[in-house]
Amino acid sequence: MRNIYIDRTEFTGAISVFSKDTEIISAGTTIYSMSVGDRNEEYQRYANDYDIQFIFDDYIPHLEFYTVPQVDIMAKDSRGGFIGTIGQSCDLESNAPICYINKDLECFIIAENGADFLSNIESWQNNLKPYNKIIFYRSKVEAEMKLEFIDLSDIGTDEINL
Fold it and tell me: Going by C-beta distance under 8 Å and a sequence separation of 6 or more, which residues neighbour residue 9?
């Protein structure tokens, strides 16, 4: 089976691609940031008590890596690590696994899904399970040298804003 990659850093909307005998894989490291207006005491409690600093629009970290498959970063910690979902945009109600990427670009699963993450949030740092299915590149350009990407500019796309 052939693998083809879609760069989710450039196209964040919904997309469907069908190709015979081909697996389409979302790639890239994206950031899920929340509106500053959503910041409240609960998010501050997560930062103070659990070292989970959710990302808001007034401070979006600069990432110097590109992941395959996609990791959507939703939070960071005081040690330079990031928390995010694997393979899709952040949604704590989905079944996407939650991972932790440390400053040395080592990846760990911290929860099977968002519900598991929230129910065990006080002990997330004790639940790090090594996960070697994320490949780190320095940039999309480096990933493109090794992987085949779909060029979305070659495809007609329709974007609907509701």
Answer: 28, 29, 30, 66, 140
CA angle 111, 44, 113 (to 5 degrees): 15
d(CA 143, CA 151): 14
- Give the distance, in angstroms, between the CA of residue 62 and the centroid of all CA atoms in the same chain: 14
Give Cα separations from 96 to 85, 92, 115, 116 (angstroms).
6, 8, 10, 11
Chunked in runs of 10, what are the mean pLDDT values of the chain (162 residues)?
87 70 90 94 95 95 95 96 91 87 97 92 94 96 94 58 36
pTM to 2 decimal places? 0.87
